[in-house]
Protein 1
Amino acid sequence: MIQDISQKISWLQENPLILKGICRGIERETLRVEKNGHFSKNMHPYLIGSSLTHQWITTDFAENLLEFITPTSTNIDKLMFFLKDLHSFVASSIKNERMWPFSIPYIGNKKTNIKIAQYGNSNLGKMKTTYRIGLKKRYGSFINTIAGVHYNFSLPIKFWKEWNKQQNNKYYNDYISNGYLHLIRNYYRFGWIITYLFGSSPAISSNFIKPKNKKYIFKKYNENVLYLPWATSLRLSDIGYTKTAIEDLNITFNNLNSYTSSLKKALHTSSDKFARLKLKDKKGNFQQLNTNILQMENELYTQIRPKRRLYPGESLINALANRGVEYVEVRSLDTNPFSPIGINKNQILLLDLFLIWCTLIESPEMKKKDFLLASKNWEKIVLEGRKPYQTIYINTKNEKITLIEMGKTIFKDLKMIAKVIDFNDKNTPYYKACQKFMKYLYDPDLTYSSKLLRLILRKGIKFSGLELANQHYKALISRHCSDENLALLKKETKRSHDKQKKIEKEDSLSFREYIKKIILPC
């Protein structure tokens, strides 16, 4: 079931410094809302920079859907400090608005106007907006305003070199890429435990649900709040999470070539469903970038995916094919509603441990039936993870084990890894994070989803969300930015506006020509 990795952990104990230098980055999405909880009607604030070109503050699907992006760092405290400064900088610039603390927005009216993100008049800006128009046509507006947190993670090169020797994989041309794909397969197998612990979207506005959708038997708090009593993350269900199923696209993570080939095929294969939506509207304006299964690589929504930093104008497919996997992006994290920045340090510590564990344990190649089995486990935890005596499948024969029993095995390993990383740290932060979250296995009431559901059932989505949003706003503006980061952010704000003007000025191609050149790589 789960390989005994005590020998591998002993190897780590003999080489504790090879884990020194783990690199991390965080992307956090949050909606700007009015003080009454409704979507902000204001454009992206000029004072926080250009959403097209700012390195750290941009927008996602909607004009009011902020996205904060940290630089990568090997120091968790510095990473969190910068993320807090980003939030404080923005909070001080949107005094009449708040940042919504939940992954699921409050939709009080089905006629809520959602303005698609605008990026100016350049071809690049038009492309980004057109891509989002396509998302609206394909999946709807409400779903695309759901927010989350992405966690970018990479292990030190020194670790990979030593790990490759230990595994006797001397003849692999790209042992680092193989190592990350190994990790990714195990995240699909076992990552549901992260959703059990950190899932924070057990309830949803009734206006999200289409009248014909009767798949789930919701309980009703009031006319606007629907919930499932044991749910952890409706954001990751087919109610909320806009996704193209990787098993339907035959995308696997068994080797880099098959992954990039399958992704490339999806980018170049026409979809009858999306072709019926039409490429252009009656006025001749693009309403999708193309009618293929995926408009762009970013449209492949998965729990975790391989990534690499890109050169200017480079596609992710080409970057991965030419230079291999550099890090993984965990995309299955709900916004932590109890943190002003959507995530806390203990979560990061546990994620580090879990991703290292996914690297150490065996990871056989996955066939379609294996992905389907993993999907069944994720669905169980997403929809009823806190259900007493919940079980998960351990093989395709439908044999099961309790979540608690499986969780105990995982946490036993995590605690041993924690002791290795805590080497020479008297505060033992990793071990303490383990101890904290292990309690959640035995007491589901401690989980974020349970705490949030109790709050929503007392006050509703709107008022509980506004209460937390106001608390977070006060906390953010009371701390202010550090002088160093404030100066940096002001400089970046000016640079981003200047950069956007330069891009717009230098355009030479028509938008149609630009799309043909940029959207269909390879």
Protein 2
Amino acid sequence: MYKSWVLILVMIFGLTIKGLPQHLPGVSMSNFAGIHALYHNPAFVADSRYRLYVNVVGSQFYTANNHVKYDAPYSFLSLITNTVSDEYRNERGALLFPRRYLKEKLNGNFKYLNAGGDSRLPSIMFNLFQGKIGVGISTRARYILNTTAVTEPLARLISKTTQLKDLQGPVFDNQSGKLHLNATAEIAFTLGGVVVDNETDFLKVGVTVKRLLGLYNAHAIIENSSYNILPDETWENRRQYINVNEAHVKYALTRDEAFSNIRPTPAWLLGNAAPGSGWGFDLGAVYEYRPDINKFSYTERGDRLRDASKNKYLYRVAVSLTDIGRVHFNNPAYVLQQETHTVNKEFRYDSFDKLGGSEEIFTAINTSLDGGQPIAPNFKSVLPMAFQASVDYYVKPNVYVSGLWVQNLISQGAFGMKAESVVSVTPRYEHRWYEISVPLTLMNRYRSPAIGIAGRVGPLWIGTDHITGLLNIGNPKSFNLYFGLSAGLFRKAPESQNQCWPPRDSWIRRIFTKR
């Protein structure tokens, strides 16, 4: 009942949460990241330390905003692991979350509130022709919610509801906001290869082609609207209703059947049976400077070859454009869309109580706004295109320091998904069987400094880029968490003793060299 009311407010007034945590600096910069590095740059598929790499499952969650701080007596971590103390639950075991747990920042500026994540599904990556060519086939599902340019009174209405005394009575004019919620699935094919290998200079390039399936879409675009909150006499003034003086809104919802009718068949994946479909692309290049390449070289049958088991660079520079493309929602069987310009309407609690799904929500909105019959759906939602650049520096054996910059390239007024802009510096210790890194990040559109920790032991990896946010230290505005299960077969070192073996840095070679 309560959730339905909140969802309606989200849909009408355009304030919600958005998630795009795919950067994972604590994991993706590693030379043992496998297929997870391809989400940063598709060129990493070539000259990998793996002959074969398989991702079983992975997931990540993210949230950030510029309006409220989390001020609850329990942490995000206890929330997502369902370990909140009984002290903060009611007699039925339901979690208590009074709105005073959200501490507001009021400055008159536009607001955004962000959260979401993705699930990395079974994927595979392998090398051909001694690593000169790499191939990846990956699958994942993303839920990306973007809200931008929400006026402060609307933001307060969502975070504090109509019960906040400060919001009751005054007329709020010129209210606006944009919401875009997308759930997408993708099947991606990555191809990369080495194009330059002349001793010290090494360059590889790659491309990813994605088949996109729009599984769900909900959007609301509010412009030049006004409202006030008044006591509801039908509830003896114990509840309030929203009196809409003027509304200019475009909104859409996808029917719930879109999920139940998923069919992973070639016809469904490549046709127009899903609510939306489209194509996306990633492009990337990676340069490595290898001043000591002779330490990793050997000759076999007259050919000059490299030790495939070793990293060879002093520093590595990677640049990429990711998520170029869009999803076209035009399936009338699932997508409901409307545009309304109206005056003197009301949103009452009874109209949105006990709703049974997306279609009933859409009907309740139309009825309240007197929006008439839905219009034919036909809109395109852009992907969260971003420029990504990274530098990785070799400090000493197994020790590296990387820098990552991700810049969103989609304007805040664009229709669709938007990436999260971040800058991070991550020292790490990496080994083929284990790894630990400490990302230092400016996240939340460069607003929130954070320190994280990530680790890998065998096939299991887990981490966060904002450990203080996860543990509820300092009233955080953002947090994230990621974990997964994946593993691979390593490429082998030369086996013959005259083929750079033992390695030049081994204890055996040092003993005999001293003699």
